[in-house]
Amino acid sequence: MSQSPTRQNFSLGRLFLPAGIRRRFELERYHVCEFVRREAIPAFHSGMQVLDAGSGRLKEQVMREELLASGATLHTLDFCAGPGVDFVGDVSDLPFKDASYDAVICTQVLEHVKSPPKTVSELVRVLKPGGMLYLTAPQSAPLHNLPWHFFNPTKLGMQMLLEDLGMELVTIKPQGGHFSQLATVLHFTVPVLQQSSLPKIVKFPAELAARFLFGFVAKLVLIPLDRFDTQCKNAGGWCFAARKPQHSSSTPSS
Questions:
Q1: Which of 13, 44, 76, 146 could cross-link with 17 by S-S, CB 3.0 to 4.6 Å?
Q2: What pLDDT digit, counting tens, does each position of 161-215 carry?
Q3: Looking at residue 56, which CATH number applies to its domain?
Q4: Total number of domains in the chain
């Protein structure tokens, strides 16, 4: 999972909020983790081979323990070597044979690749027939992990990439609705202030106020309103679960 553009080393939430509420307020991470927790992990079991493509290093592998607890064999791949990375490689050119894995997870990575179609094709290629791909990406996100931030794919774009490869769509879920996205944008005020040219005497109290108002109060008010957004046209991103057909050439349809 790629690093969030809004997470900071210092957090008021870590100091004052119970762990459950703090996790719910980490909007850039919460919906993706819940998707993996509810859609992927229950299907994993001993004997399965699972690839986390674009896993990040150990500190970014927030679902690692839960994935391992499923009993499945977990392999991680990332562009950068480091703790927790089993294979160093490019998600657009995976160093694995065709049909190597029973399931592939690729969360919040697609925005960082130069060719999303090629990347998704590679993820599908290494899947065994009948295997599952769990793919998530932000539809709206500030620039992060620079200079490797190229695209924010929409729901329709992700659906097109998967259907062009003959994948069977099983689940499509938004990463929150409009109100969660609004809360996320407001919270981004914190890094904007940090990187601003405001005088230090103004910057610190402004940042502290933004952390309280936008990192806590706004989320407390806005998150519950998501239930009333039935269209999710302004979702923070999308989560897809798709199955590779039992008989598939893994080539795009004409």
A1: 13
A2: 999 999 999 999 999 999 999 999 999 999 999 999 999 999 999 999 999 999 9
A3: 3.40.50.150
A4: 1
